[in-house]
Amino acid sequence: MSGSTCPSTTKPQFAPRSHNDVYPFIHPSKFRGALLDQVAIITGSAGAIGQALAESFAVAGAKLVLTYNNTPPPTTLKERCINLGASGVIFVKCNVAELKGCEDLIKQTYETHGKVDILINNAGANSLGLFDTQPPEAFIHELAVNLHGPYYLMRLLLPHFKSQRSGCILNIASRAGTVAIPYSTGYCASKAALINLTACVQKEVDVEGLDDVHLYSLHPGGIKSAMTLSKYSPSSISTLPPATQAAFTNSFDTLYNDSPYLNGMTCVALATGIAKLVLRGKYVDVGQDLEDILAQPEAIKLDENLYSLHTSFLGGLVNGGTGAGAATGNQATKETKRKDGAVTGEEGKERKRGEERFEFPGFLMW
Predict the structure, then answer these.
(1) Radius of gyration of the chain (CA)
(2) In this structure, what are the phi and psi dihedrals at residue 287, rounded to the nearest 5 degrees?
(3) In this predicted structure, which of 30-39, 110-119, 186-195, 344-353 has the lowest mean pLDDT?
(4) pLDDT tens digits, residue range 144-159?
(5) Are 195 and 178 in contact (CB under 8 A)?
(6) Which domains does the chain have, with CATH numbers?
(7) Which Pfam families match (predicted)?
(8) What pLDDT score does 350 carry?
């Protein structure tokens, strides 16, 4: 049953160690050649996060299909990846916000390599602006890049992953998808949707018993990149209400000081399947020590709220729904008496029947 887990049934937890750079458990030397000849598509490869992903998967020996849209990756990236151990490197121009571009990308990858084993949805769009004054085109663009692109590519690849009974999808989300940040509405909304999209698709895959098809969404850490530098530029911040400008100006250096290779090597580790029994479908913050997380499988299994989006209500109301995990039958209608005297279930209905009724015209309340 979804919702808050009773503390008495949850295994004791310990806080994982925190990191802002590569640490021993995910060190490149441990994964050298671990993905030899596996084909990995990495979108948004021109930026800081994308280049670090490419180099990290190169160390693991993958064949890299690196996409870009407006700005090509530096010419030195291919040579660096080959020197690090990549089995091959090709660049593909692709606007992931358009279905046709995604279709062409998958077609070209299959024509070149005959398969795909790993998809990393990294391309992103992020901007600052007041919700009611920001051009609608900017909001729609963020949804298209951050959500529609990953959806298109996942939808195109999942049948192949099911057919070969293996595949890994890594969706680069953000902490912004789990919190409400003013003036970042499009980014927050699209990343929240991406996190839940990942979880929903994993549940569908699990129903089919495809243990080697595993998906993850990740917060890649706070990384200084062309995108974040543009978002927090003086010209961008100047569009915000004066009372809020200082907070955004002062937060940049505090929030964005993580190495992009921390995300890169975490993604490599996840792609090898090292965490698929514990974290499949989950939202992972790369700043937490993966070894410490994997040491607590029972705690994660018993508390569905861990590493996922969830909602809590006063009084312990269960946030149920339809399908697997929803309360049904007698369990769903069981009477629950709360401290304030309120009653749910059949007894509550009886009380309502005895109260004065109010009816909207044409609408029966009870």
Answers:
(1) 23
(2) -75, -15
(3) 344-353
(4) 999 999 999 999 999 9
(5) yes
(6) 17-310 (3.40.50.720), 315-354 (no CATH)
(7) adh_short
(8) 56
Structure tokens at 172: 């680069």
Alpha-carbon distances of 178 from 30, 195, 236, 247, 303, rounded to whole Å: 31, 9, 23, 20, 17
Instruction: Return d(Cα 284, Cα 217) in angstroms, integer.
Output: 6
Q: Please list, in sequence order, all residues whose beta carbon lies within 8 angstroms of the beta carbon of residue 24, skipping any fewer than 6 positions away.
A: none
> CA neighbours within 13 Å on the CB side: how many for 291?
9
Helices (H), the chain: 48-59, 76-84, 99-113, 136-143, 149-164, 185-207, 226-231, 234-237, 242-255, 260-271, 276-279, 290-294, 297-302, 329-333, 346-354
Task: Kindly tell me if the per-residue pLDDT of 329 is higher than 80.
Answer: no
* Residue 218 bridge partners (DSSP): 172, 284
Contact 109, 156 (CB under 8 A): no
CA pair distance 335, 265, nearest whole angstrom: 49
The secondary element (H helix, E strand) that includes residue 68 is: strand 63-68
* Measured distance CA(17)–CA(8) in Å, rounded: 25
Longest dimension (CA), the chain: 79
**Single-letter code of the amino acid located at 329:** G
B/e letters for 158-184, b = 16+ CB within 10 Å, e = fewer, are: beebeeeebbbbbbbbbbbbbeeeebb
Return the amino acid letter for 271. Answer: A
275: its two tokens? 């965490």
Task: Say whether pLDDT at 41 is over 60.
Answer: yes
* Sequence-distant (≥ 6) Cβ neighbours of residue 358 within 8 angstroms: 365
The predicted model scores a pTM of 0.85
Residue 309 and residue 283 in contact, taking contact as beta carbons nearer than 8 Å: yes
